[in-house]
Amino acid sequence: MGCIQSIGGKARVFREGITVIDVKASIDPIPTSIDESSSVVLRYRTPHFRASAQVVMPPIPKKETWIVGWIQACSHMEFYNQSKARQAQRAAPPP
Length: 95
Fold this sequence. Notes:
The protein is mostly beta strands. It is built from one helix and five strands.
């Protein structure tokens, strides 16, 4: 289903005095579904990735605006495709 590498252990301090206290991440426990309705393309519908963090920000001067957001990245994927036609052939009893 997925692999989550988290920032475990102690709080981490990054530049500008930002401290990440806690990070939580999960992938919804449903399998990826494949839409084979097109003869040209496969559509993968993957479970949702959810994340939250507790972050301590330094005092911000009045004229500064900060935006905090997430970047989701993937460093490795593996796909094992099996067509519905092959599944049907394998499910059919031998003649």
